[in-house]
Amino acid sequence: MKPHSRFTHCGSDAALPMSGKHEFPNQQSGVVLFIVLIVLVAMTLAGIALVRSVDTGNMVAGNLAFKQGATLAGDAGTEAAITWLQNVAGTASSYNDQAASGYYATSQDTLDMTGSSNDPARARVDWDFNSCSGVSTPACITPAPAISAGAGNTVTFIIHRLCQIAGDPNSASNSCANYKSTSSTSPKRGSLSYGDDKRFEPLPVEYYRITSRTMGPRNTVSFVETIIHF
Questions:
Q1: Which pairs from 107-114 meet CB under 8 Å and 24+ separation?
Q2: Are 161 and 102 in contact (CB under 8 A)?
Q3: Between 20 and 30 A from 112 (CA), which of 23, 40, 158, 204?
Q4: Per-residue pLDDT at 48
Q5: Can you give the pLDDT at residue 31?
Q6: Whole-prediction pTM
C-alpha cells in the first residue's frame, strides 16, 4: 500500500524566467541636445544684439546731448562778438577789415562758412587755425581767437558787416543792409500800422552778421549765426 503525500502543490503553473538578463529602455538619439544647442546659440546672439542696441542708443543720446551743449555754447561767441562790436559799430573803425579780431567790413557772400562746399572757387574760414587744412582755396579767412566756453567746448567767431564794399556805409558807391525808416511820420495814437511809419525814426545803422563756431567733445561741431544792429 502506497503512502499518501502530506504536501500539496499550490500556486500558478507559469514558468519562471530562466535567464538573469534585464531589458533597458532604448538609448537617446541626441536630437534634444542638438535642439538645446541651437536655442542656446540663438539666445546668445539675441543677448549680443540687445547689448549692442543699448550701447548704440546710449551713444546716440550722448551725441545729441553734446550737440545741444555745443549749440548753447555758441552763445558765448555771439556775446563776445557783440561786446567787441559795441566800441566799433558805426565808427570809422568799422569801415575796414580787422582780421586779427575776426572782423570784416564786407559781407563776403561767397564765403564757405562750414567748409562743406566742394567749390574750389569759394574762400574758407580757418576755424582750426591750420591754414584751412591745406585745402586749395582763393582765400583763407582768419576768425577771432578761440575762447573757452566750458564743458570742453571751444568757441570762435567771425563778424561781417553787411556791405558790398569797405568804406563809409553812406557812400553812394556802397550798398549796405541798413536799419532805416523811409518816412518821418508817426502813427496816430491808438493805431497800428505795418507800413513804413514808425513811432521813432533812428539814424541809418548797418547790420552785422556774427557766425560762431563751437568745437566740443567727441568732435562735435556746431554753427550759430546771428544778425544784429546797434
A1: 107/160, 107/161, 107/162, 107/163, 107/164, 107/177, 107/209, 108/141, 108/160, 111/141, 112/137, 113/211, 113/223, 114/223
A2: no
A3: 204
A4: 83
A5: 75
A6: 0.67
Question: For residues 21 and 68, what is the distance between their CA atoms, to the nearest angstrom?
Answer: 82
Q: How far apart are CA 121 and CA 63, in angstroms?
A: 33
Tell me what the mean pLDDT of segment 110-122 comes to: 89
- Beta strands, E only, the chain: 103-104, 124-125, 140-141, 147-150, 153-161, 178-179, 205-206, 208-216, 220-228
Identify which has the larger pLDDT, 158 or 44.
Answer: 158
C-alpha cell recorded at residue 40 = 542656446
Adjacent-strand bridge partners of 221 = 215
What per-residue confidence (pLDDT) applies to 39?
Answer: 85
- Report the pLDDT averaged over residues 145-160: 93
CB atoms within 10 A of CB 19: 5
CB-count burial class (<10 Å; 0-12, 13-18, 19+) for 75: middle
Separation CA 201–CA 82 (nearest Å): 23
CA gap 89, 202 in Å, rounded? 15
